[in-house]
Amino acid sequence: MAKYVFKRILLAIVTIVIISVITFFAMNAIPGGPFNSEKASSPAVIAALEARYNLDKPVPVQYVMYMKNLLHGELGVSLKSARPISTIISESFPISARLGICAAILAIILGIVLGSTAALMRNKWPDRLIVFLTTLITAMPSFVVATLLLYFFCMKLGWVSAFEAGGNNFILPVIALSMSPMAYITRLTKTSMLDSLGQDYIRTARAKGVSQKKVIFIHGLRNALIPVVTYVGPMIASILTGSLVVESIFNIGGLGSKFVSSINNRDYTMIMATTIFLACIMVLANLITDIVYKIIDPRIKLD
């Protein structure tokens, strides 16, 4: 296990370096700069600002300087707000984390319950209803679900306050983010549960007189959760890192909205810092998922 974790950490470092290279050079390949949008700034002022933040140097030199600072734990300052990026992330990421974790928990619980129900009531009306709803939800992106929720529950019914920080403002974003992964988990659970219930060890347990509840929840569901765990790790990371549009729709000041605004403003340092930070979360989630495999099923070997 220790050897495997060490290898994965080395691979994670290489992955993050590759992501940083692609992001940095692609970002600088786009014409323009972070200070070109300042209409009141003269060319002399823009040149002074670029010199101040080392933007006047060749791009490879800029990258080497940035990575050296990053290795010392320095994320730099935002080119637009002049605030330390570490402070911006520490303030905004907890909001995105709260939103993402709540959405992930809701998606996992509903997905497993609905998937198990569909498997146990195969070809009956609950199964057909669940399949119809999950197919419909899968076809709608999260921003479409968010817009519909905002329109009906905020504008038409007035049950939830729109564009108000805190309180009930998290209810609709959580639902919007959880719908698509919930539908996928439902389908995964149903397929895996049907396969698990058809195995020989299930028939053996029933022949020995094991109760139906134990057969379903201890023998069947436990083995059926392995494919779900495969998806849940990256899903949590993708929810944490992919709530960009949903945060913007509901006016939530999380890291996703900061990332979108940094792209619009060509805030190079903010783009790099948030990209690397979110990439670390994704890599860590995949590593934790592989370790959880071993906990759920000791027969799985990690090479």
Please name the defining characteristics of this protein.
303 residues; mainly alpha; 12 helices; 75% helix
Percent helix range: over 70%
Low-confidence stretches: none
Query: What multimeric state do the chains show?
Result: single chain
Backbone shape: flat
Spell out the helices and strands N to C: HHHHHHHHHHHH
Taking the alpha carbons of the first and last residues, their distance comes to 8 Å
Instruction: Characterize the largest beta sheet: strand count, sense, and whether it forms a barrel.
Output: none
Rg, rounded, reads: 24 Å
Given the structure, what is the number of helices?
12
In round numbers, the mean pLDDT is: 78
The structural class is mainly alpha
Topology:
Layout: H1 2-29, H2 43-52, H3 59-71, H4 85-120, H5 125-138, H6 142-156, H7 171-197, H8 200-207, H9 212-241, H10 244-249, H11 255-264, H12 268-296
Helix pairs in contact: 1-12, 4-5, 4-7, 4-9, 5-7, 6-7, 7-9, 8-9, 9-12, 11-12
